[in-house]
Structures are given as C-alpha cells and as structure tokens.
C-alpha cells in the first residue's frame, strides 16, 4: 500500500510542474495565463503566444511528465491492483489542479497522452484516445475545440469498457476524464457560448452558432 501511495505522490508532483507556464515565463518573460485568450497554462497556448520551438519543447515535457512516472512505477507496482488507479490519474490531477498555480492548472490533454504512453504496452488506452481525437477532428469534425475534447474523452471512456478488462485502469481513465471535463466545461459554457457544429469533412451536418443563441435570447426579451 505504501508503495502505491509513494508513486501516486511522485506522479502528482511530476504532473504539477507546469512547464508550459514556467519556460515562457523564465526564458521569454511571457505569462501565457495573461496573454492567451483563455488563460490556460498549456502547451497549445505556448505554440500560439510564444512560438513553435518553445511549443515543441513544452509539449515534449508535458508528455514526459505523464509518461515517465507511470513507466517507472510499473517497475515496482502492478497495474492490476485497484490502487494503481490513483498512480495513473495523479499526473493529470497534478496538472489540472497544480499547487504551483494555486490549483488553477491546465486542461490535461498532453499529460493524458503522456500517461497513456507510459502504460504501453500494458494497455490500449493510448490508441483508444488517439483514434477518436483524429476522427472528431477530421472525418466527423466537432467544433468548438472544448466540445471536441469532451466528446473525445467520453468516447474513449466508453470504448475502454469493451477493450480494457482491468478495473484499475478503467477507474484511472474515469478519474482523468472527470478532471478533463471539469477543466473544459466552464470554457464551453462561458467563453465558447455553448455553440456547436458537427461536420462531415467540410459539409456541415448540424449545429448552432453563438450568434443564433444571442439573437434568439434577445428576441425573447
């Protein structure tokens, strides 16, 4: 039990190091929580606000902070034990609720991919996350980005029930999904105005734009 708690703490600490905040702040004197549109301390905003080289570096570090502690922990603990769910979810929770930023962390997408990379070849979760991400970004494209992410994580969790038999990994995936949804739902409701669109490649199937919501609301009042 103490071994699982130790690796949970190590994984949480690793996830809580906000490289996408620290590197632009230290080396470029840029605070991406203040200069980005959504204030998210993630590598996506580093690409946009700082540049591609810094964005690539931050992306690699965000992946590593999920992959490395999981990969190391699997040398000492078993993924079959239910307590491994805590070890598995800890990097994403550390990133989403980082003490470094007073619990105002990032959206935990890159660190989730890192965590699932660390689980290979013990689990198919990496592919179960990557495939719907590509599918909902290309073939059946969902907009805006926040809604696409939430749909992808929910689809991954549903698929995991059929492709992953270990309760520990399913529970870990559920905790990660809950953290990601929590970090995205506020943006979708407030900043993205609850609009949505579903496209088959370039053809729009259905949706509702923010302007339509505003017009219908003003018409009622």
SSE blueprint:
Layout lengths: L1 H15 L2 H9 L4 H4 L7 H7 L2 H22 L10 H13 L12 H11 L5 H11 L4 E4 L1 H19 L3 H25 L4 E5 L2 E6 L1 H11 L1
Antiparallel strand pairs: 1-2, 2-3
Structure summarized in a few sentences:
The chain is mostly helical. Helix content is 67%, strand content 7%. It is globular and about 50 Å long.
Give an overview in words.
This protein has 221 residues and is mostly helical. It has one domain (2-220). 67% of the residues lie in helices and 7% in strands. It is built from eleven helices and three strands. It has helices at residues 2-16, 19-27, 32-35, 43-49, 52-73, 84-96, 109-119, 125-135, 145-163, 167-191, 210-220, and strands at residues 140-143, 196-200, 203-208. It has a three-stranded antiparallel sheet with strand order 1-2-3. α5 (52-73) packs across α7 (109-119).
């Amino acid at each position: 039990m103490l071994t699982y708690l130790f690796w949970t703490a190590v994984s949480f600490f690793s996830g809580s190091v906000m490289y996408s905040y620290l590197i632009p702040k230290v080396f470029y004197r840029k605070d991406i929580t203040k200069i980005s549109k959504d204030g998210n301390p993630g590598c996506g905003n580093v690409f946009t606000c700082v540049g591609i080289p810094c964005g690539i570096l931050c992306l690699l570090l965000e992946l590593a902070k999920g992959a490395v502690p999981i990969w190391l922990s699997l040398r000492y603990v078993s993924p079959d034990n239910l307590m491994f769910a805590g070890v598995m979810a800890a990097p994403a929770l550390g990133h989403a609720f980082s003490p470094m930023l007073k619990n105002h962390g990032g959206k935990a997408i890159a660190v989730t991919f890192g965590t699932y990379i660390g689980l290979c070849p013990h689990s198919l979760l990496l592919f179960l996350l990557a495939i719907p991400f590509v599918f909902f970004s290309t073939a059946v494209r969902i907009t805006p980005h926040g809604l696409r992410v939430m749909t992808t994580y929910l689809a991954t969790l549903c698929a995991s029930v059929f492709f992953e038999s270990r309760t520990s990994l399913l529970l870990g995936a559920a905790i990660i999904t809950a953290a990601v949804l929590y970090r995205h739902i506020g943006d979708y409701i407030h900043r993205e105005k609850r609009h949505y669109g579903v496209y088959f490649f370039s053809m729009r199937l259905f949706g509702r734009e923010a302007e339509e919501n505003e017009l219908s609301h003003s018409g009622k009042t």
